[in-house]
Amino acid sequence: MGLFKQLSVQKIIIAANSPAAYVPPNLGEEIQRQLKTARSRVFAYSDYVKQVDCTRCGAPKRLPSKTAYLYCDHCGSLIDYDFRLANFGTNAGLTNQVFLYLVAPVQAELERAIARNDKDRYRQLLRPVYAEWIRQVPQAVSPRATSDEDFRRRTVGYFVECMVVREFSPQTHALGHQLEAATSAVRRIPQPDGSVLVDESIWPVAQLFKQQMDLGYRQLRETGVLDLEPEQTPLDVQLRMEYSVFCQNWLPKIPPADVDRFLAFFGIRNEYAKANVAGALTRKCGGCGDELMTVPGAQAVICESCGRKLDIAGGEVPCQNCGAPLSFPTGASAIECPYCRAGTHRA
User: How far is Cα 287 from Cα 308, in angstroms, rounded to an integer?
Assistant: First the structure.
């Protein structure tokens, strides 16, 4: 999601003379307030479900989701990004603004590393920025990054390598500059209610963004970076997620008459059905203790509260102290009961 960020969309350059360690800047009270509000809205079930089938096992999505990241109800694979649910509170403009603030202390050093073709230095500078960004805006990434340290580390590594491909490729870098210039040239028209709309000048931006994504992901595949993506998400799903975030950022500024045309340009379909919870079973996450719904026959699911992948096919295991029925995280043979903190293991 948002892998090819524009690091120079605006210049918030803070003096940075080869910092020995990354020190995150203060985001300011207003941004922190907005982030707190956004986080509080993330974990709210929707009554409707985006109609999509799993690309791995073919199962249709039936159950409501807490986050914009849609996981298969049967196998736990990431299958789509819910654009509608994302707009309940996970604003792409806000998450990008936070990234710009966080990268500001090292922006000048990043540009020097690019000029010297020093990829190792570039990685060294960018890793802590992405780690802090995920900490500040967890709603911008998969809920699996919340509690799984290895998943979070691999997510940071993947994001960084994506940026290396983009920034050290003359072709991709040149296209990025074209996109930045087109974005700066977009005409913004103030409205009586204080909002801003854009005119036809947004379409070159949309076209260039699509070109950038097509080129970027082709290079990620050719260089093997795509294999580092921790979810192993199919390419078409990743592109749909990128387009969704881009549209989420611009949609409030698109004239109402052009909204459908704008979404159709990126192939974003918003077809929803009432959540079908008939026959759903309630399980208790053995990681955080939260309750979640599962469909009959489910093999594995993602707990959207803590991000752990749970082995549903393995059945529930009662806590050996308090008796709570727990669904173990996949691969785990022993856990600490989230209710009484007693050690519990599979028989």
Answer: 7
Q: How would you class 258 by CB atoms within 10 Å of its CB: exposed for 0-12, middle for 13-18, buried for 19 or more?
A: middle
3-state secondary structure of 48: strand
Which tens digits make up the pLDDT trace of 148-179? 889 999 999 999 999 999 899 999 888 989 99
Number of H helices, E strands in the chain: 10, 14
134 membership: H or E segment, kind and range: helix 119-136
Lookup: tokens for 306: 């803590």
The residue ranges of the chain whose pLDDT is under 70 are: 1-20, 30-31, 34-46, 86-93, 270
Q: Is 167 helix (H, G, I), strand (E, B) or coil?
A: helix
Domain positions in the chain: 29-265, 281-345
By CB atoms closer than 10 A (0-12, 13-18, 19+), residue 113 is buried
Structure tokens at 13: 């350059």
Q: Is 61 helix (H, G, I), strand (E, B) or coil?
A: coil
C-alpha to C-alpha distance for 288 and 293, rounded to whole angstroms? 15
Give me the DSSP letters along 31-43: HHHHHHHHHHHHS
Query: How far is CA 280 from its chain centroid?
Result: 27
Residue 203: per-residue pLDDT: 97
pLDDT in tens, 81-102: 887 776 655 455 677 788 888 9
Burial of residue 282, with CB atoms counted within 10 A of its CB: 0-12 exposed, 13-18 middle, 19 or more buried: exposed
Name the β-bridge partners of 190: 196
Q: How many CA atoms lie within 13 A of 37 on its CB side?
A: 11
What is this structure's pTM?
0.80
Nearest to 206 by CA among 166, 246, 240: 246
* Residues of the chain above pLDDT 90, percent: 59
Q: What are phi and psi of 130, to 5 degrees?
A: -65, -35
- In 3D space, the residue among 84, 88, 160 whose CA is nearest the CA of residue 123 turns out to be 160
Distance separating alpha carbons of residues 212 and 217, to the nearest angstrom: 8
